[in-house]
Design goal:
Elements: E1 9-10, E2 17-18, H1 37-46, H2 50-60, H3 66-69, E3 75-76, E4 80-88, E5 92-99, E6 105-111, H4 119-132, E7 143-149, E8 152-157, E9 163-164, H5 165-172, H6 177-196, E10 209-213, E11 219-223, H7 255-259, H8 265-281, H9 291-300, H10 306-309, H11 317-326, H12 338-353, E12 365-367, E13 370-373, H13 387-425, E14 444-447, E15 452-454, E16 467-473, E17 477-485, E18 492-498, E19 504-508, E20 517-525, E21 529-535, E22 551-557, E23 576-578, E24 584-586, E25 594-599, E26 604-612, E27 617-620, E28 626-627, E29 630-636, E30 641-646, E31 663-669
Parallel strand pairs: 14-16, 23-25
Antiparallel strand pairs: 1-2, 3-4, 4-5, 5-6, 6-8, 7-8, 9-10, 10-11, 12-13, 15-22, 16-21, 17-20, 17-22, 18-19, 18-21, 24-31, 25-30, 26-29, 26-31, 27-28, 27-30
Helix pairs in contact: 6-8, 6-12, 8-11, 11-12
Length: 670
């Protein structure tokens, strides 16, 4: 007698297979009703044969598709050889890679290819990746490098051995407080550093926490994918009319995320509370037949105490309180920082478990005053790439290049010419570029307020145009600067400002062929390099060369001025202060540019006047209402945010009206 094979449905986003079509994907949160009938049918027809069933499941695993296999053996950016696929998720595929010059192992996450076709997504990627690469907490999976290759966006990350927390919960069930508390405190430490730097995770869930082991055999948590949910425009609901992004996984999303409101660090703390509940009980905080049902419960239901769901786990009322306070629907009623939450977890751990974790041993790190992080991560072996390895390598590379060039120059041109060249490399400021200057280690020195001229001539390769790199002498952290490069006939150029290690702070590529680029009033992060590159314009197969027409580059040190914006200010964490009766001006000079202002005045009614001449601008008040330029009375509280953004949908470079037209905002308390 034949038996009917169990049907299998495959998540349309992350390709995980399920047997129940009524549930959304527990891995990435996608709506499982979008699983194709053809896919479901194929699984049902073949499942009766065990060997065939296994082969189908393997084939459905994106780790073995042809597009992913095509990366194997490739060398990315001349630095990273792709060795094997090690995982995949809702955002892309993860490979194990080797740094060619150092022989060290890292992980490379290649994001879904369609993101690289979306200009807004690319800009978000560059902003988020640059921010995330600043994170150095031991319980954060560090990002070392990022860019584009083979038509896709990629991140080079720390390679971590271990399993994600979701796998451990699914395997072992509810976790006792004695084991869970150190993991939770470690996650708080990672969140606190990120929040202090203005980075909000937006998709904290057990799948994004890797658990390795310390040298002493203890759990060592690593949080990954900070900020990546913000890149995934595919997660927008189809019915959305205002394009507000809803990002995250339904089981762990905060109410403000679900409503499409602005999300700050407290949104991560709600997700942390849902994760903590899942860890302590082995169950999700809310369940329903579909994603909408779960989201509705986040907005309306009162959360159970963990001890109610897992009465046999002996969960203390104090632990219940910590978890339920994190899950308050009103952000103002939650813990107000990850440090505060972590300190409560530490104290409860000490009181309920005792000092049995040898917290006085070397290598511990304080989390809000306590010491639950012990020993060192076992995965931090000499074979794995670390940030210190890259820093040492870059310093060594610069020294070697300088030595080779100096010897060659002195040999060919004689001692006098070589000595002059030596002085140039030691810091002589130039007014005309001097090749080679294609890399940070070859950068020409320029000075604030002085013009330097150059050519975008010989291509570096068939696909890469000329690149000129300059180091701004005297640049340091927290300096306000502007940078401008003039256009070159028949050349589409870009302007990038970055640190010495090559990490981009901002890339501007808004003008078309023959147009220049500008960075306006931006705060520096340290030593500053400026790169000008010839890009392929639409329809070109190779970048254009121009050996006769100069560009002019000028980097200007700006004076602090309370009447002008300071970039970056696209998030609440970086918002510029808006003071009573003080007119603030700024620019929306790139596609997707957003400026966020923070009211620093008294609570009450105020007349807000927004002006924009020739700039397609709209502004959003704290009540969520979007308005055209003009004057209106609104109620403001100290700390409220006003958001300005472009209303045009520029689809191509050169189509960004009002790039140099300033907006102005004046607030007068009534």
């Amino acid at each position: 007698m034949s038996s009917t094979p169990e049907p299998r449905y495959v998540c349309p986003r992350c390709r995980t297979a399920f047997t129940d079509l009524t549930h959304f994907c527990t891995k990435c949160g996608a709506d499982m009703t979008r699983a194709s009938a053809l896919e479901a049918s194929a699984h049902g027809e073949l499942a009766a044969d065990t060997d065939v069933k296994l082969s189908v499941e393997v084939a459905q695993d994106r780790r073995v598709t042809e597009s992913n296999r095509a990366w194997l053996g490739k060398v990315v950016e001349g630095r990273y050889r792709v060795l094997e696929v090690i995982g995949r998720g809702g955002m892309g595929v993860v490979y194990r890679v080797e740094h060619l010059r150092m022989g060290k192992i890292a992980a490379m996450k290649v994001l879904h290819r369609e993101l690289a076709n979306d200009r807004d997504a690319i800009e978000r990627f560059e902003r988020e990746a640059a921010a995330v690469s600043r994170l150095q907490h031991p319980h954060t999976v560090q990002v070392f490098d990022f860019g584009q290759a083979q038509g896709a966006l990629y991140l080079i990350m720390e390679y971590v051995r271990g399993q994600d927390l979701a796998h451990i919960i699914n395997r072992d069930g509810a976790m006792p407080w004695a084991r869970a508390a150190p993991i939770l405190a470690q996650i708080c430490g990672a969140l606190q550093e990120a929040h202090e730097l203005g980075v909000v995770h937006r998709d904290l869930k057990p799948e994004n926490v890797l658990i390795g082991r310390t040298t002493g055999g203890r759990d060592f948590a690593k949080v990954l994918d900070f900020g990546l949910a913000k890149l995934d425009g595919r997660q927008l609901p189809a019915s959305s009319t205002d394009r507000q992004e809803i990002m995250g996984t339904p089981y762990f999303m905060s109410p403000e995320q679900i409503r499409g409101d602005e999300v700050d660090a407290r949104g991560d703390l709600y997700s942390f509370g849902a994760l903590m509940f899942n860890l302590l009980t082995g169950q999700n905080l809310y369940t329903a037949a579909n994603a909408v049902g779960v989201l509705t419960k986040h907005l309306t239901a009162e959360p159970d105490a963990p001890s109610q769901r897992a009465p046999t786990m002996g969960i203390d009322p104090r632990v219940d309180h910590i978890c339920r306070k994190a899950l308050a629907r009103d952000p103002a009623q939650r813990w107000q920082s990850a440090a505060e939450l972590g300190a409560e977890i530490e104290e409860a751990y000490r009181d309920l478990v005792g000092e049995s974790t040898n917290s006085g041993r070397g290598g511990s790190r304080s989390l809000g005053g306590g010491k639950l992080v012990l020993e060192v991560d076992e995965s931090a072996s000499d074979l794995r790439l670390r940030r210190s390895d890259l820093d040492a390598f870059e310093r060594s590379l610069r020294r070697r290049k300088f030595t080779v060039w100096a010897v060659a120059a002195m040999t060919v041109a004689g001692i006098a010419a070589g000595a002059g060249w030596y002085l140039t490399r030691q810091g002589q400021v130039l007014t005309r570029e001097r090749e080679p200057n294609n890399e940070p280690g070859e950068a020409n020195f320029v000075a604030f307020g002085r013009d330097v001229f150059g050519l975008l001539g010989k291509r570096r390769s068939k696909s890469e145009g000329d690149l000129d790199v300059f180091e701004v002498k005297g640049a340091g952290a927290r300096q306000l600067f502007s940078a401008e490069v003039t256009g070159i006939p028949n050349i589409d150029l870009s302007l990038r400002v970055m640190g010495r290690e090559g990490r981009a702070w901002v890339t501007v590529d808004e003008g078309g062929v023959g147009e220049g680029e500008q960075v306006f009033r931006r705060m520096s992060e340290g030593a500053m390099l400026v790169a000008i590159e010839s890009r392929r314009s639409d329809g070109q197969t190779v970048p254009t060369e121009n050996v006769s027409d100069d560009y002019r580059l000028r980097v200007t040190l700006e004076a602090p001025d309370a009447g002008w914006e300071a970039e970056p200010n696209a998030s609440a964490a970086d918002a510029n202060p808006l003071t009573p009766r003080q007119t603030l001006r700024g620019r929306l000079d790139s596609r997707g540019d957003v400026d966020v202002l923070r009211w620093s005045g008294p609570e009450g009614m105020a007349l807000v006047e927004v002006q924009a001449d020739g700039l397609p601008l709209a502004w959003q008040t704290p009540d969520g209402q979007v308005r055209a330029p003009g004057a209106v009375q609104v109620k403001l509280r100290n700390g409220d945010h006003v958001r300005l953004f472009r209303t045009d949908q520029a689809g191509r470079k050169g189509d960004v009206p009002g790039r140099t037209s300033p907006w102005s905002v004046t607030v007068t308390p009534q």
